[in-house]
Amino acid sequence: MDAILLVGGQGTRLRPLTARRHKSLVPVCNRPAIDYLFAWLERSGIRRAILALGLANEDLAARYPAGRHRGLEILPIIETARLESGGAIRNAVETAGIDDRFLVLNGDVYLDFDFAAALAAHVERAADLTLALHEVDDPSSFGVAVCDPDGLVTGFVEKPPPGEAPSRLVNAGAWIFERRLVDEIPPGAVRVEETLFPSLVARRRVVLGYRFEGHWADLGTPARYLALHRALLGAGAAIHPGASVHPSAALAGAAVGEGSVVGPRASLSGSVLWERVHVGEAAELVDTIAADGARIGPGARLRGCVIGPGATIGPGAAPPPGTIVDADGQYHEPHAG
């Protein structure tokens, strides 16, 4: 069985973190996020992963060229125009020669559930389409699915206002397609979530909502990215063997990437350092992300900040909570405004 990974987006919601790297290469506990999807696909018995690459995705294409990657065959497909999810699926199916049932994954999710059980339910119900659904506490920023008592999808609500969602089951970005559905995707650059899926439901086709209990996260925003690390790390830490952490530094729920340096008496809580980040003596980072090559000066205090690649936070600086510093930007104010 083949899987199509929709990895053509530009990661705009994660900027400035994605200013210099593809969103699928964003590190999760010091591994590229897409590596977790590859590992899950391999465990699930998928034989080939087709990367539907959009424009300006050269770094991802270079990182995962055509060929074997562990137990998977990787096939990158470069799109020459913006296709959205529907056009990308059609293009990947035709280019890769897919002639049977296949799986589609959004490239900016983290998931772990029993795919064999989902596939068995799809086959048993003779479904045209199966959507993996996951229950969340606040579905207001997601696409919500409404299901009948038999688990069939009866409708969709996109980003319902807080407290008004008809259910808490959200589209988890994993879909089992029958090959015949590709011919029903409208032409052009269209999103299947807004065209094909509602059309199938309206025509009373069998669209199964498969609810799973495994772990799931949308990596589309810095807040969700940090929440995933909290879920994976708890109070522990993920320190790359190529990083240097001073024995007097305190880490809790933190990840430290390759080539990064954490100085004496520095404190990292719920924070993520990418590669080659330097954290000075007695600096304090709480719920903060620092991208490649960022430098945090001694005594700096950061809370809920997003520090872009190559950015500099001056000694003793204390940006207001939630501050975003662009790539190569600087912040030197000693007191929060």
UniProtKB/TrEMBL annotation:
Nucleotidyl transferase domain: residues covered: 3-232
Domain Glucose-1-phosphate adenylyltransferase/Bifunctional protein GlmU-like C-terminal hexapeptide: 255-317
InterPro entries given in the database record: GlmU/GlgC-like_hexapep, Mannose-1P_guanyltransferase, NTP_transferase_dom, Nucleotide-diphossugar_trans, Trimer_LpxA-like_sf
Region described as Disordered: spans on this chain: 317-337
Protein name: NDP-sugar synthase
